[in-house]
């Protein structure tokens, strides 16, 4: 690969985030593992096979994001790949949800993605090179009961990525989105706790008849980050065992 490229992964300490960080490291990238939990991020970074660092960051705070990006660039070098993976949800009927919950979900899932992207974009434009991979969800493509505002934010992430892809297409930067289907994470456990019937129906609806694993999702991110994806931008790829086909 020549000079080691640097990938910043947000929400790196979650199930999917951890898998993405590990797969990118195994592909030779230095990893900046960004997470609200700085100690867990440092622990993850120490476990990776390439030179990596953990960065504690609240992606809803633009000054904290700017400081985190500066730390990454100082310690590892310019950010070549950004994976916007951080996200939160609260499974409940929309009519029982509160305004405070809506604002938190929007501020992390959508505005957090916007904020981190903006913080790394100038450097990518200056270098005429960059890969941005947003982690959305099939909920943002087809909707999901008990995840109404979450689905809205994930749909927004998809549209944001497409529009940004158009703006930066001549700058050597690609922007693509990976949409996991039902995946074995803490969030899916929330779904099971909310409605075992809904969880079972979801599992049965997957044509492959199994719930996805974080290791099923990560290779799609590695591909979008790779040289092989140079001519691919503005795309949305579901990793869902066939649950969503488009």
UniProtKB/TrEMBL annotation:
Keywords on record: Cell wall, Oxidoreductase, Secreted
PROSITE patterns: ADH_SHORT
Entry's Gene Ontology molecular function annotations: 3-oxoacyl-[acyl-carrier-protein] reductase (NADPH) activity
Single biological process term from Gene Ontology: monocarboxylic acid metabolic process
Catalytic reactions of this protein: a (3R)-hydroxyacyl-[ACP] + NADP(+) = a 3-oxoacyl-[ACP] + NADPH + H(+)
The organism's place on the tree of life at top rank: Bacteria
Domain Ketoreductase per the UniProt entry, residue ranges: 5-181
InterPro entries: KR_dom, NAD(P)-bd_dom_sf, Sc_DH/Rdtase_CS, SDR, SDR_fam
Localization: Secreted, Cell wall
SMART domains for the chain: PKS_KR
Gene3D superfamilies: NAD(P)-binding Rossmann-like Domain
Keyword Secreted: yes
Pfam families per the UniProt record, alphabetical: adh_short_C2
PANTHER family from the UniProt entry: 3-OXOACYL-(ACYL-CARRIER-PROTEIN) REDUCTASE, 3-OXOACYL-[ACYL-CARRIER-PROTEIN] REDUCTASE FABG
Family: Belongs to the short-chain dehydrogenases/reductases (SDR) family.
Protein known as: 3-oxoacyl-[acyl-carrier-protein] reductase MabA
Species name: Nocardia flavorosea
């Amino acid at each position: 690969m020549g000079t080691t490229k640097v990938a910043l992964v947000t929400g790196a300490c979650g199930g999917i985030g951890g898998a993405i960080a590990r797969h990118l490291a195994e592909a030779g990238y230095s990893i900046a593992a960004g997470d609200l939990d700085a100690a867990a991020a440092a622990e993850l970074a120490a476990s990776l096979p390439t030179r990596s660092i953990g960065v504690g960051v609240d992606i809803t705070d633009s000054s904290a994001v700017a400081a985190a990006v500066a730390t990454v660039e100082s310690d590892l070098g310019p950010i070549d790949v950004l994976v916007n993976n951080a996200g939160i949800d609260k499974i409940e009927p929309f009519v029982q949800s509160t305004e405070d919950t809506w604002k938190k979900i929007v501020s992390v899932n959508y505005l957090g993605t916007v904020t981190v992207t903006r913080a790394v974009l100038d450097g990518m434009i200056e270098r005429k090179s960059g890969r941005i991979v947003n982690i959305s969800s099939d909920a943002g493509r087809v909707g999901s009961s008990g995840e109404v505002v979450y689905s809205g934010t994930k749909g927004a992430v998809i549209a944001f990525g497409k529009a940004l892809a158009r703006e930066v297409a001549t700058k050597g930067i690609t922007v693509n989105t990976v949409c996991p289907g039902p995946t074995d994470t803490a969030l899916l456990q929330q779904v099971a706790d909310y409605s075992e019937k809904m969880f079972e129906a979801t599992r049965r609806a997957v044509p492959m008849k199994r719930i996805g694993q974080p290791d099923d999702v990560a290779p799609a991110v590695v591909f979008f980050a790779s040289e092989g994806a140079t001519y691919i931008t503005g795309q949305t790829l579901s990793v869902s065992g066939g649950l969503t086909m488009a």
